[in-house]
Design a protein that fits this description.
The chain has 6 helices and 4 strands. By secondary structure, the protein is an alpha/beta fold. The chain has a single domain, classed as Metalloproteases ("zincins"), catalytic domain (Collagenase (Catalytic Domain), 3-Layer(aba) Sandwich), CATH 3.40.390.30. The protein has a 4-stranded mixed β-sheet. It starts with 10 loop residues before the first strand and ends in a 10-residue tail after the last helix.
Amino acid sequence: MSTMTTPLPPLQLSLQFSPEHRASSDPKLHQALTRHHVRQTLRHALRGALAHPSQQHTPAPSLASPAILGVRVVGEVEGLALNQDYRQQAHATNVLTFAYGLSPQIGADVVLCAPVLKREARELGVSLKNHCTHLLVHACLHALGFDHEGARREAQEMEALETLILKGLGVADPYARA
């Protein structure tokens, strides 16, 4: 069955913006990260990843597995603190994924650092919405166990899958620029 005809998996989404990134103070960010867009992006990423051949060789959730995902948009101070506490990195990063498991449901929290996302989108010459879409897909793949920091083959597989999912969402290959 093709990905385009496979139903989107169920998703329970919590979307939070830190006080400095509420709609009234950051309207462009809210236009890029509407609840509908975040939900659709994550559901497409789940469908693409769960249908991927690598997921069929390990105990993995099915396309019918429910997902409970939290997405929190933070500022530089909170992004730095989280990256320092959990990755021992002394800088705010664009996205962090905290995966909690794949059974009985897929569970993860995703943290997006708004100032880093905006700066990167500007530097890359892409829209903020497309950059956010890419990082949501990236985070979703991490939640499902994909990794790009180990073997180069795994990184290439994850990048190829991201590119495929993003193409289905109308977003250009983010790695073609690299």
